[in-house]
Write a structure and sequence with these properties.
Layout lengths: L1 H7 L3 H15 L1 H11 L5 H11 L4 H14 L3 H16 L1
Helix pairs in contact: 1-2, 2-3, 2-4, 3-4, 4-5, 5-6
Amino acid sequence: MHNQLLHIHFSPVVALNRTYALAKTIGKEAAIIGAEKLQFINNHLYFNLLGELYKDIDNSKAKMSIKKHFYWAKTATDKETIRSKLDNFCKN
């Protein structure tokens, strides 16, 4: 379904959702390869996805992605949520 949506109308959100679905079906490692090809470097959701994908695979990259997610977040509420996530990540 995500592939069809991308062919009809490309959207960063659809591309990120497709990558997340790949992580759930074929594994995080394969999804990371696809995610990094997207290069949505100005999109906070991109870095949120990378943080989730790298978690428990490469925790330094996961933490870096979460920090970038924080930087690109658009609202104070988002930043607060991400800060909490980063604080919890650093505890583990």
